[in-house]
Amino acid sequence: MSRSIGKVWLGEQISRRATVLGAAGIIIILVLTGVKVVAVLDQLNRIDRISTQQILIERQMSDLHAYGMIAQRLSAASHGADRGALVQELDSATAALAARHQLLDNSGIAEAPQAVAASLEYNFAKLLALAALIRDPILGQPSMDIAEQTRVLIDSNLRGTMDNWTNALLRDAKSARDQIKIALGLSSIIMLTAILLSWLFVLRPLSRTVVDGTHHARALEDALKHTAGHDRLTGLPNRTRAAELIDHQISRRRKVSVGVIHLNLCQFRTINEEMGHEAGDQVLIETAHRLSAIIGEREFVARIGGDEFLILADSVTCAEDLAVKAADLRRTVREVYDLPGGQRLIDCVIGAVWSANGTTDAESLSVRADIALHAAVNGDGGPVRLFTHAMLEEFTLRDALGRELRQSLEKGELVAFFQPQIRADNGEVSGFETLIRWRHPTRGLLAPGLFLQLAEEMGLADQIGATVLDQALDAWQGWAAAGFTVPHVAVNYSAAQLADTMLADRIKWALERRNLLPECLALEVVETVAVENDNALAVRTIRSLAAAGFSIELDDFGTGHASIANIHRFCACRIKIDRSFVTNIDQREDLSAMADAMVRMASALGVDTIAEGVETAEERAKVIALGCHSLQGYNIARPMAFEDSVLWLTEHRVLNHSRMRARRVV
Questions:
Q1: Which CATH number fits domain 239-387: 3.30.260.10, 3.40.50.10330, 3.30.70.20, 3.30.70.270?
Q2: From residue 32, how far is each of 175, 189, 190 by CA, in Å?
Q3: Are 225 and 217 in contact (CB under 8 A)?
Q4: Sheet of strand 300-303, all strands in order from the earlier edge strand to the far edge
Q5: Stretch among 297-306, 311-320, 583-592 having the lowest mean pLDDT
Q6: Which of 39, 350, 439, 472 could disulfide-link 434, Cβ–Cβ 3.0 to 4.6 Å?
Q7: E strand or H helix at 263, and its extent?
Q8: 22, 43, 176, 177 from 33: Cα distances, Å
Q9: By C-alpha distance, which of 228, 229, 223, 233 is closest to 241?
């Protein structure tokens, strides 16, 4: 591409200089041509004057001949009326002849040869003198002799002089015509030279530039088309191009089965955060190479999203073969990646769709493969799922629910519920956990498990998180205003929310707007948040909040892959023993032993414990006996709206005081 651009630039420079030189040459040629044109016009004017003079000479000769005839008749006439008439005729002819001579003189007699002009002037003056003698004869001089002299003067001297002048004019006319021929010849040569120079220095370089520019434009257009239809990083077709290729394949092989596989990499976001985007790019490039290496001749791989790939499976003959193909692709992806920060194992989830007769278009196939992929991500059917119509029905319901969820934020239908937490030793309130609920207009009160994951997929987690935080802080202020001492209110944050670089600032700003201290808010971090090292963005966010004075609690403790490490990594001040270890703990020794180990470990690390999911009196008694600091569950209270929490606090204060007095009495 750069070489092509360089050639075009060089051609443009050469063409520009050639055009300047050619234009200068053409201007010079046009000036010379203009000079020749002026010369031709001058010669044409000269020929016009010669023609005029020839006409005047012919008329003058005719007038001189008539004048001579009048003079002869006058010389032969006697005295009387006839002579008087002839005298008048002679006078008129003399005046006309003099006027004609003056006209001839004005038309260019000065251009006549000097001898001709002098002879003409002399003979004309002599003619006028002889005419005067004929008109007024002198006594003793015969009139016939004068008339004869007049005839000889006219027929010999004046005619000879006129003939000489005419010959001179003919020579001048011939010379003018020769000059015109030469000028026209030179003009033709100049024009041919101009045409040749224009071709050599303007038209040919310009034509070459146009041809080169056309080739370059075509190459650039092809490159732009390729860029528009392909991923710049991996060189694979993008989503738009993939749809075109699928449609082309279906239309070319109508009624032939076809499969589409949608593959999504796992842990890709974590790699970008912990190892940098260069490592992430390397993963994408390596994945593209691996997938491209195992597909068939009529198949292709496309990158349709950040960490998503689409594969057209054209070599399979049934849905079972498509599932085998998808499993092979997953095994290929799961091989070790050699990255700058070390080796990593990366998994993937796959959704696939099979079209038995090839009548489905690319958009429908892609949508169905995407639905199957979501089922693989969210469901329990394994990492590879084939599309079913049941999935489509579920997706339709989820899509409708998603639209309603977006509207619920605007309508204020998402509300915070609060579940109390009490101390195990004295029953006093140790805090509230904030739990989101959706007051659906037709389906009633919906638990978070029905919409929170959908909210994260739709990118609404931050908005919902902000709503929950505001309602939680407003509730804490309400409890304080009502005279209740609540140490803190806890808010849950997911892995996606913790990866937000602005989360810590938004939380701090929410407290500053209300003039609240960080101690009134606890952040519950899901213990299953996957982090590989202390430089992960989620870890940095949590540590920043802990350093600012916020309490950090590990939720669902015991279910993650790095529970003990996360206590130190997240600067946790309390762990919440997951309900899976609490349910039936009074009946199962294994659960009791594991819960006891967690309590002892936390005590050794100086971290408080709270048992969640306490639903029976027996479970409550058991976890208290194990030494848990706090309790939470239906046995204490169910999640409730803020107004109900105020009533519960009032009732609990009375009941707890009565219980404590009774205990002291005992």
A1: 3.30.70.270
A2: 21, 11, 8
A3: no
A4: 300-303, 308-313, 258-265, 348-355, 384-386
A5: 311-320
A6: 472
A7: strand 258-265
A8: 16, 15, 18, 18
A9: 229
Token pair 């041509």 is found at: 33
Which residue bears the tokens 């990366």? Answer: 346
pTM score, two decimals? 0.57
Domain residue extents for the chain: 2-209, 239-387, 415-665
Which has more pLDDT, 356 or 487?
487
Which residue type sits at 590?
D
Question: What backbone phi and psi angles, to 5 degrees, belong to 605?
Answer: -90, 0
Listing DSSP states for 551-573 in one string gives EEEEEEETSSSSHHHHHHHTT-S
pLDDT value at residue 115 = 65
CATH code for the domain defined by 415-665: 3.20.20.450
Strands 258-265 and 348-355, sheet pairing: antiparallel
Phi then psi for 351, rounded to 5 degrees?
A: -120, 135
Q: Give, in order, the Cα–Cα distances in Å from 518 to each of 52, 62, 475, 552, 666.
A: 119, 134, 15, 11, 40
Instruction: Report how far residue 313's alpha carbon sits from residue 320's, in angstroms, rounded to the nearest whole number.
Output: 12
Q: Whole-angstrom Cα distance, residue 528 to residue 560? A: 4
Instruction: Classify residue 237 by its DSSP letter.
Output: B
283-296 residues labelled b (16+ CB within 10 A) or e (exposed):
bbebbbebbbeebe
Neighbours of 235 (CB within 10 A): 13
CATH class of 2-209: mainly alpha
Q: Which residues contact 134 (CB under 8 A, 6 or more apart)?
A: 71, 74, 75, 90, 143, 146, 147, 150
* Greatest mean pLDDT among 87-91, 265-269, 659-663: 265-269
Q: Encode pLDDT of 524-545 as tens digits.
A: 987 556 555 666 788 888 999 9
C-alpha closest to that of 613 among 575, 573, 581: 581
H-type alpha helices, 294-384: 319-333, 362-378
Amino acid, res. 379: G
514 three-state secondary structure: helix
Average of pLDDT values for 596-608? 92
